[in-house]
Amino acid sequence: MSATALETTGRVPDIGQAVAHAFPHWRDLVADTPGEAGFPESDTYDLATTVISTLERAELTAQVFRSDTPLTAAGEHLARLIDACEE
Fold first, then answer.
1. Is residue 22 over pLDDT 90?
2. If residue 42 lies in a helix (H) or strand (E), which one and from where to where?
């Protein structure tokens, strides 16, 4: 999502608007897990933003190096962190 947003910023308003709506939706979905584990709401949104940002960066790195390793590693470690929230 980030690459598309950056490439089209200011040039394709419809894509900018779609990204502006997608990010909060994703953040809300991801924030549910720590929220259900009892984290304060302010922390759940910060954690969700961190998860999404990590995956976005891992996706970019995977594309640059033409390898799924960065994305797989990020996903596995984020899953461990999220699982720890549920304990």
1. no
2. helix 41-65
